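Protocol step 4 of 6: record predicted structures for both targets in the notebook before any analysis. Target 1:
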Amino acid sequence: MAGVSPLHAQTVTPARNTSSSQLPTLGDGSDMTLSAERRLGDRIARGIYRDPDYIDDPVLTEYVQNIWKPLMAAARLRGDLSPELQERFAWEIMLGKDRTVNAFAMPGGYFGLHLGLIAVVTSRDELASVLGHELSHVTQRHIARLMTRQSQQTPWMIGAMVLGALAASKSPDAGSALIVGGQAMAAQNQLNFSREMEREADRVGFGVMTQAGFEAQGFVTMFDKLQQASRLNDNGAYPYLRSHPLTTERIADMQARQPLGASSAINATLTAEHAMAASRASVLANAGMDALRSVIAEADSTRLAQQPAAKRAGVLYGAALAATQLRDFKQAQAYLTRLRTAVESDAPATRLTDLLAVEIALAANQVPQAAQLMAALSATAKQRPELMLAASVAARSGQRALASGAAQNLQVWVTDHPTDAGAWQQLATLYAALGQTLRAIRAEAETQVARLDYAAGVDRLRAAQDLILEGKVGANGGVDHIEASIIDTRKREVELRLKEQTLDKGVN
């Protein structure tokens, strides 16, 4: 989800010959087909989309995607990710507004990533090590093998149990609502891979991340963080340790794979861009007033001047965002001014600062200023964070020309990214503001389809058809026949998906 590379997108370098064929594998050994696993993953993902903790933050989503895409490319290059597997699975990372340190693979190529994990990693390399590990759980079909072991359970019961275990990691009461009877332990086991699977995911993940151009030390420094947490008798902030327990064998294996003389300094690759992304994740995951004030206090500390430049940028960014959350816009602007000075020679960090400036202006209801700031971002205007923010500004501005331009840009985006629910939702708002009722309703339907709620999608498309029959939509009260034809076609397609989804539920 990026364009020109202020985000330093990694390139896949074939120079490192780390083909997965050189590594011992456990074999597939699974009776679950790719289609069955994907359908199960869709069911679980649909539940996560409805979770209040699910978050589509364009800035963080893009940051994660710029790490994820090189990993996917490397997995393809190494032969870990077959064309069939890539086509059948979703390969989607779902962010959770949760301050605990966790990431997990789910059936069908869906992945969960808590903002708490983004907040604690100190480099892109550390985050790449986690994502590479989780990616490898899926490419090596570990989940399907676990499902095969639970063959006495129906797939949808397993799906409910997985959702229950995820909910229980945040709230035992919420989890018990989804896990019936004595199945809680079975659900937790469903998320826990064997030691052999963990070691295999380490080995394959290590090869993937280094092939993608990330530094090998990221794996070791991430293990250092987890090991320190485990020594402190994890108090619940690191659920990742429970589903991916560290062993001395795993740690020794990763240390042995480091190049001779490699540095193990955790801050070796800290950048202002990463520090700012981590601070954003921390603030969005800890929305309580005391937590926000703590972030601000760090920016006001006299010790901040002694910190490395990248660290200072992260602290100031977090303070500006925290002050915005507290609706202290004067203070937010003061931190923003300090931040601009701190990152003036760093293009990626400057871009994140410019985006934050628009967010602050919008939050303060200074819409004309937000529009002016948005116009200055023309160099990166076609990237997702800019497109989404421009849509918000245009919808608030009341200016038809702004709304029309933002809608055109978003329409191009969703044509290339048809499963982007957030973009469709913004597009629906813009079309409604422009009085283009049919297009607005279809965009609402596409939002639901992208979230795998086909029943809601059909309902919206049916509502559009009802308006068409009444002949009350379109220019001068007429009907846009091209749009009407698209709606008819999409309704048939979504009804077919809904029928398949309903049949799947019936196999219980």
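Target 2:
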Amino acid sequence: MAAYWTQFDGLEERLKGYLDTVAERLYDPTREVINFGLVDSAERASIVGHETRVQDIDFLVIYVTTYALSAIVLPIVRKAKVPVLVLNLQPTAALDYARFNDLQDRTTMTGEWLAYCSACTMPEIANVFERCEIPFHQVNGRLDDDPECWREIHEWMDAAQVMHGLSHLRLGLMGHYYSGMLDIATDLTAVSYIFGTHFEQLEVDELSSIRLNVSDTEVRQEVEVLRDAFDIQEDCSFFELDRAARTSVALEQFIKKYSLGALAYYYKGSGSELNEDTMSSIILGTSLLTRRGIPVAGEYEIKNALAMKIMDSFGTGGSFTEYYAVDYTDDIVLMGHDGPGHPGIADGKTRVRPLDVYHGKVGRGLSVEMSVKAGPVTLLSVVENKRRGFKLLVAECSIEAGPILEIGNTNSRYRFPIGARKFIQRWNEHGPAHHCAVGVGHIAHKLEKLGALLNVDVVQVC
């Protein structure tokens, strides 16, 4: 409050120093942080509230440095109309009582106390937000020497960045749904509203046309890219590798033309030799795209393209997966999928194998076989439901080394802390589509924060 500055010498400068420290710690090369400075009056609050709109912010962080009137906080939040995080950070763990009580006069003592009383106004702010139906989030702790506090703050910042990315995501839809899979049918309007994602409807015919114009030189260069990225097995013919390379080059041009950040596709290509040639040679190219942060989901699985993008945006990778089989002897679940994989989270180099039959799909060609690297992983399913449109279904588990199904698909051994039977039961109870995304590391706490910012439910089964 501005009234304090003339009463307590040095308090304003001290609090500005704390504010600058927070701004510096919030900064990251991947994000823009705007410091609106110390807001100490209703007039200043009105100006800053307007400035948040001018700057088009995605996330508002309010650092409470001392007692602050709620009438100063509310105008900013009301005008910003974005998710809010309130930081209650004391300078240190506690006042030095002996030094404090030895100060020369009570005015000086009060000024020192005011530098520590950020907690005082938290109930007042919470009360006003609750009455105004303004969702908010909070972190309570210390400015210094509090790793847990700052870990949580940075998780909120990471979640805000993922939210921002989803709201600017251009997700390509190429082809049509896989016949009979009613679970993957998706309400595009709801996705656009809740996640902010834009959908670009694409034609397989256009990709096939681009593919026709790929030069032999480009194909030869792409073959070398594929050899470097994958472990090409000896029984892979040059003819099939050439087909895959040609499609990979075309895909890169296609993605660039439409500025896509993700893709969901499925198309039989039956009756069109060009389209069948394109779609049966797409797996290596889509795997390369997935590795570099443009996740590609087969079977036109839009919700899982979102799940993969979310996982990859948190830096954990995001690979397409589903139940394959249960090993009740070892109490693990085998999970994987045909089509694209994420070579960036594979255990070693992803193998490429020729398949005479794409099971359940038209054509033949090259496919990828990989296991996710051993260690902690997180499963994410974007589940369509009636309550809020969508919810995030999460499970933390681990990948174990061991035998897999060597059938030219992605395939891994998952161990769940609640056991295979209970995991399957709990996961299925929430009505997910049969696909989900897997990323390395345990990040349920980050996904929970993303759900809070998107205003969707998050359910963690283990």
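Step 5 preliminary note on target 2. The longest strand covers residues 390-400. The mean pLDDT is 93.
Proceed to step 6 after PI sign-off.
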